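Hi R.,

Here's the chain you asked about this morning:
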Amino acid sequence: MNNIERATTLQAQIQKRLELLKLWVNSGVPGGLVLPRSLAQVRRWKNTGLGIVPIGSTSSFTKTHRKYGASVSQIESYLKRLQVKHSKKTRRSGNARARDLKLQNEEYKAALLAAANRYAMQTVALESSEAQARMLQQAVEELEREIAALKRTNRHKQSDSSKEKTNVTKLVPRNSDRRDTGPDR
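And here is the predicted structure, written out as tokens:
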């Protein structure tokens, strides 16, 4: 498996975990499934029936990873919400409600961070494209100036060439003007 395939698989596995946990937060965990208790367990999680395979890369499955960090943070947030929902306490106290709101706030922050990262990347890409467009426009302008200079040079040379033809014509007499003065005649 090459690096591109590994990255694609990693991204798909993170997304799969995120979607499942989000679904379970909204609709409940199906009976008989064991819920991971930590991010490390989520990373090592294996359930072929759900299409979940272990993620080998410990460095990519972190909350601080540049590309996957926001998704891992959301996974952690969903995991915490599920743990609160499925804890042995059935009574919802004010503290449980506060924890739920705090977790929801963390989800929003993670989503906002992901959006900000996408915006920053798009801004950099746009600035790069604009700089490239400016460079290309300058190259076009330079080439247009060069073409104009070549046209002027070409016209000047054509003008000089026709003057030379006129001068040569004046130097060489026409046949009717020539008189044979040679010894044969």
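One quick note: The mean pLDDT is 81.

Cheers,
M.
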